[in-house]
Amino acid sequence: MTEIPFNGLRLRFDSAKSFEALVDALLADIGRQPAPLYDLVAESDNWDGFERAVQRYVGPSGFMLFAAVDHGGWIVKAGIHRRVVRVVLGNPLIAITMLRHDITAGLFAPVEVLLTEEAGNRSALTYVAPSSLIVVEPNEPLEAAARELDAKLKALALSVTGSADQLSTRSAS
To answer: Pfam families under this entry (predicted)?
Structure first.
């Protein structure tokens, strides 16, 4: 057994949007139904065909929905009354840019975000920076690809939370 310690970097994007509006904004971008990845594999004879099939499900941010876990649906049984959804999203065409350099990058691709209901009819989107999970040993090509994923995920988070609007408003004043 080999142990490789690493530190994850958690990022939280607070939003003035309601929980429902945040969920809606994210799903409007990445899709409301999980992409049928294994069907896409089965219908593709080669990489080019797979690429074309994947592109049909990719949203404006470059990501697609893989799964959603409604934690809020079960934590109420333990007396926790908050809406919380964990969303698994990604893009095999992005993942391959990392898996080519380290197959263990597949531990963290696709990525996950957590949408939470916050006080005052607000919400938040939280995730761990993919590069902080994927790059655990020196590997420049892997790090470059993972940093590109970081940037894409941050852009999505800023867009769906409305934080990008707040940033441009602040910088304009």
So the answer is: DUF302
